[in-house]
Automatic annotation (TrEMBL):
Its EC number is 2.5.1.72. It comes from uncultured Desulfobacterium sp. This is Quinolinate synthase. The gene is nadA. Pfam families: NadA. The keyword Iron-sulfur applies. It is an enzyme of class 2 (transferase).
Length: 318
């Protein structure tokens, strides 16, 4: 009975959100790690790259970003004429906080010859000190776009950087940051699950440590994982990323077995936003995320270069 009441309440809240979305000419963008009830009410769910592209192309007046702070900032960088709402302003990313603009500026001052590639999981201030941004979906493309004669410095994720270095001939050094969720996955945990499911395909996110990636059958972003599971003839998959991705995977693949590499891979920051928060944000048109124009213009160059590379173009460093 309680479950039925909860389902009815959830449906009622979702209907109110959709009503407000129409009234405000808004669009809801949700990351693949968001709670199921938020993914289900969103206009688009995706990884950071997909959401960035959608934000840059939308004709909506308002973007409700269900994710964490740097994602809303990226939308503001790309869409200065839009109102960007982040229903829970304190939803942050621990990895993004591991590098500051001040620190990166000092590195650039000491080593001005470096090409700085920053993961999109960074603050707008850090992006403003960056040559090109990247996501887990396009990092190899971005790295390979750099002149082989130049040295690359990647920030903040050491695991993504080591993955890129292994899959490219470019010279890459990196900052010692990481995603606490992905970095916690161990080879021992993976081997235990693989032993229990010997026929399963192990999919790992490039934010995982190198020794975990060495065990992977496939290394992909969340959207890459989704596509692979949908297209594969295999029936069992071990999922090496935040467990939120299992919701859209199971909806798209009801006959397939999806096993978390670690069921405790939960990003609490990604779970902060509720349906009630979304209704409040749409009613009040707050909290708004607005990147200051001087920072926005500097950061936009790095994001635009990334999007151009993803579109199959090549843009030289300024």
């Amino acid at each position: 009975m309680e479950t039925t009441l909860n389902q009815q309440k959830t449906k009622s809240l979702q209907e109110e959100i959709r009503r407000l979305v129409g009234q405000k000419n808004a669009i809801i963008l949700a990351h693949n790690y968001q709670p199921p009830e938020i993914q289900d009410v969103a206009d688009l769910c995706g990884d950071s790259l997909e959401l960035s592209i959608k934000a840059s192309k939308t004709d909506a007046d308002v973007i409700v970003f269900c994710g964490v702070h740097f994602m809303a900032e990226t939308a503001s960088i790309l869409c200065p004429d839009k109102k960007i709402l982040l229903p829970k302003l304190d939803a942050g990313c621990p990895m993004a906080d591991m590098i500051t603009a001040k620190t990166l500026g000092e590195i650039r001052q000491k080593r001005p010859e470096l090409v700085v590639i920053s993961y999109v999981n960074t603050t707008a201030d850090v992006k403003a000190q960056t040559d090109i941004c990247c996501t887990s979906a396009n990092v190899i493309q971005v790295v390979n776009s750099v002149d082989p004669a130049m040295e690359i410095f990647m920030t903040p994720d050491k695991n993504l950087a080591q993955y890129a270095r292994k899959n490219s001939d470019r010279r890459i050094s990196f900052w010692d940051g990481y995603c606490p969720i992905h970095n916690s996955l161990t080879p021992g945990q993976v081997m235990k699950v693989k032993k229990a499911h010997p026929e399963a395909v192990f999919l790992a996110h490039p934010e995982c440590p190198p020794e975990v990636l060495a065990l992977a059958d496939l290394i992909k972003s969340t959207s890459g994982m989704l596509s692979f599971v949908s297209q594969s003839d295999k029936k069992e998959f071990i999922i090496g990323t935040e467990i939120g991705i299992i919701h859209p995977m199971s909806k798209a693949n009801p006959g397939k077995m999806l096993i978390p590499a670690d069921p405790d891979m939960i990003c609490r920051q990604m779970k902060k936003i509720s349906l009630t928060d979304m209704i409040g944000a749409l009613n009040e048109m707050q909290p708004e995320v607005k990147v200051p124009e001087d920072i926005r213009l500097k950061a936009k160059g790095a994001v635009d270069r990334m999007l151009a590379i993803s579109a199959g173009l090549s843009m030289a460093r300024d």
